[in-house]
Amino acid sequence: MTTGIWVLGDQLQAGQAALASANPAGTRVLLIESTTLPGRLAVHPQKLVLVWSAMRHFAVEQRQAGWTVDLLETDDFGETLLAWIGREGIRELRVMEPADRPFRRMIEALALPVPLVWVASNAFLWSRDAFAAWATGRRQLRMETFYREGRRRFGVLMEAGGDQPLGERWNYDQENRRSPPRGLVGPEPLWFEPDAITREVIAKVGALDERRRADGSCPLPGDLEPFRWGVTRAQALAVLEHFIATRLAGFGPYQDAMVGGQPTLWHALLSPYLNLGLLQPLEVIQRLEEEGLARGVPLASLEGVIRQILGWREYTHGLYHWFGEDYAASNHFGHQAPLPPFFERLGGSGMACMDTALAAIRELGYAHHIQRLMLLANYGLIAGLEPAALTDWFRRVFIDGFDWVMQTNVLGMGLFADGGRLASKPYAASGSYINRMGTHCKGCRYDPKQRTGPVACPFNALYWDFLERHRQELAANPRMALVMKQLEKFAEADLAAIRTTAAQHRSTMAGGV
Ligand SMILES: Cc1cc2nc3c(=O)[nH]c(=O)nc-3n(C[C@H](O)[C@H](O)[C@H](O)COP(=O)(O)OP(=O)(O)OC[C@H]3O[C@@H](n4cnc5c(N)ncnc54)[C@H](O)[C@@H]3O)c2cc1C
Ligand code: SF4
Question: What are the Cα distances from residue 53, in Å, to 29, 206, 365, 378?
Fold first, then answer.
């Protein structure tokens, strides 16, 4: 009997659970490079190159490891799968559970002629069952509690043999929020030249983009070239080692800083590799811990990055499956505004901070965490953009965008669209936060100190307008008390001017600037 194992594009791990459940004799491995989705959806071209090239390299490596691997290109993955099952005499199809729910639904809808076996995923540290056991019965599912449990459970940064954190503290966030000094420059990231396989994929994506334009569809958002991401496990490991050698020690202090012309600063640039399975979370965490302690890296930096992977990454994945299908439709504030055209154009908003982040997305498909949270999602929150539309945009334009990580980050953390199931308060901020944590305001046509009028920073008017529109509800949140007290002090004339400035900004942006 021939067992078929279908490996999805974000399951490129040699030890992934479906492969681990079989052996090369009597097994055929399938990878499908399908244009079904990008034919319909405008996805960043570099994301397509990354996933397809990584799949092609994975196929080569698995053949070398003794597996029989078929990599098929198609524009209809359902038909291709069925034809392959018939042609190769497959008697049972195994698939590791997809991280993204829609994939599972699509596969289940295929009416396969052979039994379909779902193999529980080993792509995350916390299985879905383990997360559910942790979450069951808790009134609040806060990240900090989950993270501490993860530190204990996986024995990361703990005092030897004990229950206490190394260095006697669980959290160094307070030390990791420095404003960027003038001229701050981060270390150079490790980039790669495309090899022959990647160049072929680049040509294919270029042709796909041309076909879309000829059909009258919108072009793929972002630059196809230069493409500099890694596409193999060896390259992903090299990025990890490069991060340890050049950025780990400095990761903490400027974690929240936003600097023009410095899209990556001390950030790890590991998310595309972790999300495709080229790196495993536990191996990354253990390597960081081992090398970080050996090199005497400050605990604030070491704990800072481990918190992201052992804490936030596992937490957002766990919550995505725990919250279930309906979470995608969350819209707590009832926001309905369509995205202004500068989102799809990836530039041209006239706001220096936004245009800088959008330019990095256009060039790399990347912006760092604070740009995602405090610029892009914050703008979406205070401008009242429709949560589902903004989530979809994030998923399409980011190199590391997947359903499981987008929903909780954008809807929960960024937009508070879930009404506080994830965050304890909305991450809303005015221009003064961006001015404090970034370097863009000096070169901006707007003034971060003004709230109203034609040169007022749009983040200011939108911020106070947002607070006022949801005054009643926000006043009931103790973590918003201070700022809501400030709002109380505004005279009616100030509020009217804020409303007018916010409305003018919205209408200018909707018109495409
Ligand atoms: C609105 C919004 C959208 C986001 N969209 C994505 C996305 O599509 N894909 C994605 O992988 N991450 C997403 N994140 C989380 C985070 O911003 C990125 O993982 C991170 O910026 C990736 O860059 P890096 O590898 O340089 O990360 P670093 O800042 O160096 O962090 C190290 C690693 O920690 C993990 N991590 C950090 N924060 C988070 C988080 N909040 N959720 C999950 N993992 C985290 C990532 O694996 C990352 O590689 C989003 C966050 C927000 C607020
Ligand atoms: S003034 Fe406002 S819009 Fe301009 S860069 Fe500063 S925060 Fe951004």
Answer: 17, 14, 16, 33
